[in-house]
Amino acid sequence: MAETSNSHRKLRIHALRYNPAKADDTPRIQTYELEEAPGMTLFIALSEIREKQDPSLQFDFVCRAGICGSCGMMINGLPGLACRTVTKDLPADISLAPLPFFELIGDLSVNTGKWMRGMSEKLETWVHSMGQSTDLKRIEEAMDPALAEEVYELDRCIECGCCVASCGTARMRKDFVGAVGLNKMARFRLDPRDKRTDADFYELVGDDNGVFGCMSLLACHDVCPKNLPLQTQIAFLRRKMVLQGTKG
Amino acid sequence: MDSTPNVIAGVGLADRPRKSRWPARMDLAQSATGLVLGLFMWGHMFFVSSILLGKDAMWSITKMFEGYFFFGKAYPGAVSVIVGAIFAILIVHAFLAMRKFPANYTQYRTFIGHRKLMAHEDTTLWWVQAITGFLLFFIAAVHLYQMLMHPGDIGPYESADRVWSGRWWPLYLVALFAVELHGGIGLYRLCVKWGWLEGKDANASRKRLKTLKWVLTVFFIALGLATLAAYMKIGYDHRDRVGERYTPSWVVPNPMEKAK
Fold it and tell me: What is the structure's pLDDT at A248?
């Protein structure tokens, strides 16, 4: 095959190893060498290491297709999804570290789910029908296709945590809801089934842990593996919340 | 629990205690004061750089601000009023922007490490903004106090004497870089923060804004350096006659004399 000729690089993967559950463990970098294969992703590389070299290496994967959001990690200093990162786009030396900010489970595995759950509860990221009774038999109100498309666009967030790990504000201030939270607010604000008003949204994100904490460093926008329009959405939410806040 | 469906449906949300409106006002005020200061500094640079067109040009601009061409008499106090207003806006801006600074050593360390690891341009630019902003607390305060108390000491010889014989040039040199970096980055950030000039393709317009930001920053720093050099040269040549005021040959009598 033509493509194999240039793809037999020797990759050196430097992974941060640390198990916080072990009392005597100290963080260290461990280097694994392996031969690059055509079309190899970091998911394939890490699986090969775990299978053939070191079964103790911890990392998370479920879907291996950029949908589940579990394989977010720091790849040469930048957050990204390991399953969507092709090794051929990287130098032969690849440093891997767990996403900062989130609770470390071990090695490259972090508990994003726990934080995401807390953030979702805090921001009440679900459709509020505001007193309308729940009737599962009632036919849902029709939504304009263009609007449905807009809602869907923002709903593509997979909660991988890359935006939060890349966020200077979140790194300094642990209570910041991050781009993931602000994007969710923008998503529910768009949704006509959610009867909440801007006054209600202000109660959720109208402070320095919410939209006013954002310093517009835009790393979230630049690293988002789903290319969500975070810059636009946060700016939109900021304008709405300032309007709400200055209205009194 | 019986109340669960109500919680999920958001019943009674409107009766909850309301969040403070101040974070919204402060966010808006930080941006608004920054916008005023950023644009003012661009204007300011054009006015002081008039020395590059000659002493008479600079003298005319100074006298215009002192109201000489409107009232036939110079009122340097008018400059103090502008300086006072800018000083007030600066204090509000500094007070609000300070909220974003790292508040303790842990935050400081974390951000430094984060910036280095990410090597992300806009994150690094924010750090530049924070450092230059911190510098400006002191630099701008010194400069503004001087201007507030001695508004009449602006002019081709007056300013040049201050720059050279008064040994103000090191302060102005640092101020030039601090202001142009801080203001340029700040105005760019205002655009992306509020979604101004975003158009249909936010990524493309951000790239254009970033390029424009750098072009303007380089332009204003170059203009500033040339201007500072001009004042230093005039000040050096004038070092034996410090205190002498400049009057264009076509102006008789001296408007400062006339003011008395």
Answer: 62
Predicted local distance difference test score (pLDDT) of residue B75: 95
A155–chain B Cβ distance below 8 A for any pair: no
Is the separation of the CB atoms in B213 and B245 below 8 Å? no
Q: Write out chain B residues lying below 8 Å of A120, CB-based.
A: none
pLDDT in tens, B122-170: 999 999 999 999 999 999 999 999 999 999 999 999 999 999 999 999 9
Structure tokens belonging to residue A200: 């209600």
The predicted structure's pLDDT at residue B257:
55
Minimal Cβ distance to B126: which of A217, A222, A242: A217
A236 interface with B at CB cutoff 8 Å: yes
Share of chain A above pLDDT 90, in %: 90
Per-position DSSP letters for A182-241, written without gaps between them: HHHHHHHHH-TT----HHHHHHHHSSTTTGGG-----HHHHH-TT---HHHHHHHHHHHH
Determine the Cα–Cα distance for residues A74 and A95; give it in Å rounded to an integer: 8
Interface test mutation site (partner A, options B20, B21, B114, max chain A beta carbons within 10 A): B114
Phi, psi of A79 (to 5 degrees): -70, 140
Q: Do A206 and B24 touch (CB under 8 A)?
A: yes
The answer to whether residue A193 neighbours chain B at the CB level (below 8 Å) is no
**Is any Cβ of chain B less than 8 angstroms from the Cβ of A61?**
no
A178 touching chain B per CB within 8 A: no
pLDDT tens by residue, B142-151: 999 999 999 9
Do residues A167 and A176 touch, judged by C-beta distance below 8 A?
yes
d(CA A217, CA A194): 30
Enter the ipTM.
0.92
Can you list the positions of beta strands (E) in chain A?
A: 10-17, 28-35, 72-75, 78-81, 93-97, 103-106, 109-111
CA separation for the pair A107, A83 (Å, rounded) = 17
C-alpha distance from B86 to closest chain A C-alpha (Å): 24
At A98-140, the pLDDT tens digits run 999 999 999 999 999 999 999 999 999 999 987 777 788 888 8
